[in-house]
């Protein structure tokens, strides 16, 4: 399990004086990118492979409020990975200074070829590096169908009805 510690800053607090939704997203992103950069996914590495990560969704579950003044820990585990590395799913957990879990997030994404603008598999070395991240107890091999498990599809506007 990969862990990152954060101090809650004034700018991380919302109008209710607790940790803002956007701060959760920022702390998770920072934790993921720190792991990736430490494991061969730095900017130069990604540029050489002409790939980048894309997020499909982040589902955050809030259990308890957390306030400024104490450090927090954000963990990262691998919940799923496609055989070719194209799709990945992460689990983040948030802990207060006493080890109490106050939020959790499941995040799914994929890798995109930045020239073709299409999803792509990971080179084997990067796949192995990503797979070295600690797995959750319910880890699974992901398929394309897993990316559609919530049945969400675009709902386009009719341009004639909205005045485009």
From TrEMBL:
According to the UniProt entry, its GO molecular function terms are: fatty acyl-CoA hydrolase activity
Keywords in alphabetical order, please. Hydrolase
Q: Which CDD domains match?
A: 4HBT
Keyword set includes Hydrolase: yes
**Pfam families to which the protein is assigned, alphabetical:** 4HBT_2
Note whether Signal occurs among the keywords.
no
Give the family per the record. Belongs to the 4-hydroxybenzoyl-CoA thioesterase family.
Quote the PANTHER family the UniProt record gives: 4-HYDROXYBENZOYL-COA THIOESTERASE FAMILY MEMBER (PTHR31793), NOVEL THIOESTERASE SUPERFAMILY DOMAIN AND SAPOSIN A-TYPE DOMAIN CONTAINING PROTEIN (0610012H03RIK) (PTHR31793:SF27)
Which protein are we looking at? Acyl-CoA thioester hydrolase
Q: What is the species of this protein?
A: Salegentibacter holothuriorum
């Amino acid at each position: 399990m990969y862990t990152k510690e954060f101090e809650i800053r004034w700018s991380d607090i919302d109008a209710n004086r607790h940790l803002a939704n956007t701060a959760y997203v920022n702390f998770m992103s920072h934790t993921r990118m720190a792991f990736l950069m430490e494991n061969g996914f730095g900017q130069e590495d990604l540029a050489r492979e002409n790939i980048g990560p894309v997020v499909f969704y982040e589902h955050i579950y809030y259990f308890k409020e957390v306030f400024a003044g104490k450090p927090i820990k954000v963990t990262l585990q691998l919940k799923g990975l496609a055989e070719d590395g194209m799709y990945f799913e992460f689990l983040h957990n948030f802990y207060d200074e006493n080890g109490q879990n106050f939020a959790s997030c499941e995040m799914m994404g994929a890798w995109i070829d930045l020239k073709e603008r299409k999803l792509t598999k990971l080179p084997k070395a990067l796949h192995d590096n990503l797979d070295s991240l600690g797995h959750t107890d319910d880890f699974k091999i992901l398929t394309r169908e897993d990316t559609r498990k919530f049945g969400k599809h675009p709902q386009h506007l009719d341009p004639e009805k909205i005045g485009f």
